[in-house]
Amino acid sequence: MSQSKEVVALKGDGIYRLLTRYGLSSSEYMEDFIALNKSHLGKNNTLLAGVKYKLPDSANSTKSVTSSATPSKGTGRVVHYDIFGSNYADVEIKSNDLKGAVYYLVGGHGGPDPGAVGMHGGYHVYEDEYAYDVTLRLARRLIEEGATVYLITRDKNDGIRDSYSLKADKDEVCYPNRTIPLNQTKRLRQRTDAVNELYKKHKGSFQRMIALHIDSRSKRENIDIFFYHDKRSKTGKKASEILRNTIEAKYREHQPNRGYTGTVSPRNLYVVRNTWPTAIFIELGNMNHQRDVQRLVIPSNRQAVANWLTLGLVTDFKTNK
After folding, report:
1. What are 176-209's pLDDT values in tens digits?
2. CA distance 25 to 91
3. 8 Å CB contact between 284 and 213
């Protein structure tokens, strides 16, 4: 095995930026990088300027981003999706772990409604923009594992963005290209109808609706990532528990002293109650709690969340049909 190359982190570097500077995909090498450099990372796996870090060996990396089982061989097929933006539009299908699974991903709010608004480092943090970026990253990872994915909330201009501050706009649309109404009930019904029409098209397939939001609570309340399901759905409850347990395991692996307080519970939410596929509603954190916001503003953290959710969804697909 060749020796790992060492590089020096520059001021402002995150793991994503460092990996991409040296031609390594963050979705493939993030976990390997953290494992190699755990003792030299700051809080929440931040990089320290001027410190040397080892790069994963692209020839020998384990690339353990699909499941604990032996990964399937990649198909070698590359598919182009403009929706992911110019830097991420080409997606390599790396495995068939999710072949036959269909996902409907709904980023929270959008269009005329930005959702919750917080502050970090002197700039605004808008729920719809950060939830959408995680949604895009999750969509891309699911496609890499062979899934069929529909983005119900869509923004043709944004793509995956590797910035701390994500500029707000109001040009999101609902699949396939419908203007998002301001009225909340109409907006929720529009998204539900879009999912249910697609559900009929894929009747008989393994299907999941996943909505991603960011909650707004007291500044003192650190809530971590938590999950809601329909009270009537045993499958939804089990899927949510799988995702929660996966997140907890990954935090225990990478930040063993951090702890994790995410929960699973039923809730009478419109999109959860009225969409026909098994529904999972994910709150990515509390917009008013700075540790939760840091999980959102750092691009490598948003990618890690997408990677970990993908791991859980692979387990869900294999064990919760």
Report:
1. 999 999 999 999 999 999 999 999 999 999 999 9
2. 11
3. yes
Instruction: Using CB atoms within 10 Å of the CB of residue 154, give its burial: 0 to 12 exposed, 13 to 18 middle, 19+ buried.
Output: buried
CB atoms < 10 A from the CB of 100, how many? 13
Which residues on adjacent β-strands are paired with residue 154? 173
DSSP at 123: E
CATH 3.40.630.40 maps onto the chain at 78-319
Using CB atoms within 10 Å of the CB of residue 68, give its burial: 0 to 12 exposed, 13 to 18 middle, 19+ buried.
exposed
Taking the whole predicted model, whether its pTM rises above 0.70 is answered as yes
CATH code of the domain made up of 78-319: 3.40.630.40
Q: Which of 51, 68, 47, 139 is nearest to 101 (CA)?
A: 139
pLDDT in tens, 116-138: 999 888 999 999 999 999 999 99
Please name the amino acid found at residue 25.
S
- Give me the phi and psi of 58, to 5 degrees please: -65, -20
